[in-house]
Amino acid sequence: MKKIIINGANGYVASNFINQLLGQECEIIALVRGNKKLTANERMNQVLSHLNDEDFIGNSKLKVVNYSLNDENFGIPEDEISDIFRGELDYYHFAASLKYDFKSKDEIFRTNIDGVKNSLSIYNKYAGDKSRFFFISTAYSCGKYNGEFREQFHDNEDISAFRNYYEQSKRFAENVIREFMEKNKIDAHIIRLSQVVGNSETGITKTDYGIFDFAKRMHSISTRYPNKEVRVKVDPKATQNLIPINEVIKYLMFTVQTSDAPQIVNLTAKQSTQNTLILDGLSTLIPLKLVPVPELKKEEMSSIERLVSVGMSFTGSYIDTDLRWETNNLDALVPNDGNNNEDKAILKMLEYFIGTLDHSKITKKVSIAS
Ligand SMILES: NC(=O)c1ccc[n+]([C@@H]2O[C@H](COP(=O)([O-])OP(=O)(O)OC[C@H]3O[C@@H](n4cnc5c(N)ncnc54)[C@H](OP(=O)(O)O)[C@@H]3O)[C@@H](O)[C@H]2O)c1
Question: Which of 94, 149, 191, 245 has most ligand 1 atoms within 8 Å of CB, for mutation?
Fold first, then answer.
């Protein structure tokens, strides 16, 4: 039976991957860090319950192990770690700090670069020869690159070539893997994701990252200040590349099944989504009319517009981007059938997501009243 080890296993993408793997013939080892309130096992079960509408009671294929990403042997006793990594396996490194603020640089580098180095050295020490190492990177490791970002390694660059340390840390981590691979001849693969959203078929969206973080903040402002027209400092024609979680999982499942995965893949949506679609879509779902004004200056903003602008601290760096990625490796596996319904799918996800926020508001009110 195939053995698959996944770190950062309770995160959004990894937990969806595990949820899918549970239906396959394989042994899954999920590396999760416990916290003060919950054990690693409880955290993993909680997230799988959430994904399965509270209907998950454990699965014998899944073993959850408490670990510490930066510690020697992940802080796991020697006999246990050598047992975990014994034989031929696929290792997926998902763990990462997704922070983007400049003051979190140390944490971002410690997690996203030192964490990868530690994973590599443990993998190299214990995993069998025919094993494979998959690193989950980001398409935004392209930084401020202007052309079509190729599916190959790119040299390290100064922070001025990136929007934040998160992007830079992922570029550095990829090059850590490149060097390690050349030196130790391991079979390693890089999977670069763009912004991962909900399910394009069902609309179900269980992430509040990126545009959904923005949607959540706008929803909150709209409940406090309903029926206002607010200007947002956004270029309406600029785009966001949004990759549905089901597409990501489809690709990850492909990597499990094939012995011929590409070394680097830009796992991005074929068609990017214009900001105007997101703003217009949101304006129909919440009582707030969002009007894009690219040149909006801070001193011209009303107090609500300033609140909106604070709510864009992350999305703010991506309001005027129109990035392009090479997708030859991806296209060879998943040919473009010309049926690009991305925009429709994004609107469906926004509708679902706002619905969950409205619902949680209603249930909160009911539980306070009762
Ligand atoms: N979501 C996206 O749109 C997106 C886009 C591009 C690339 N990616 C990449 O995809 C991967 C998964 O992202 P995600 O959205 O699923 O993120 P997520 O939900 O935030 O999950 C991140 C995971 O990393 C773990 N982690 C963070 N810091 C850690 C540390 N110091 N030690 C051990 N574990 C640590 C988290 O554990 P805790 O819960 O304990 O913090 C969590 O399990 C990441 O590598 C990310 O860079 C994601």
Answer: 94
DSSP 150: P
* Residue 33 in contact with ligand 1 by CB distance below 6 A: yes
Q: Where are the alpha helices (DSSP H) in the chain?
A: 12-21, 40-51, 78-84, 105-109, 115-126, 165-184, 211-224, 245-257, 275-285, 303-310, 328-333, 342-369
Provide the token pair at 73: 């042997």
Give the 3-state secondary structure of residue 190: strand
Say if ligand 1 is within 6 A of residue 17 CB.
no
Structure confidence by residue, pLDDT tens digits, 184-209: 999 999 999 999 999 999 999 999 99
State the pTM of this model.
0.95
pLDDT one-digit tens code per residue, 70-113 = 999 999 999 999 999 999 999 999 999 999 888 999 999 999 99
Distance of CA 78 to the CA centre of its chain: 31
- What domains appear along the chain, each with residue ranges and CATH number? 2-196+242-267 (3.40.50.720), 198-240+272-321+339-361 (no CATH)
Residue 82 CA to ligand 1 center (angstroms) comes to 25
**Burial class of 121 by CB neighbour count within 10 A (0 to 12, 13 to 18, 19+):** middle
Dihedral angle of Cα 110, 147, 337, 266, to the nearest 10 degrees: -20
User: Tokens 């549905």, residue?
Assistant: 244
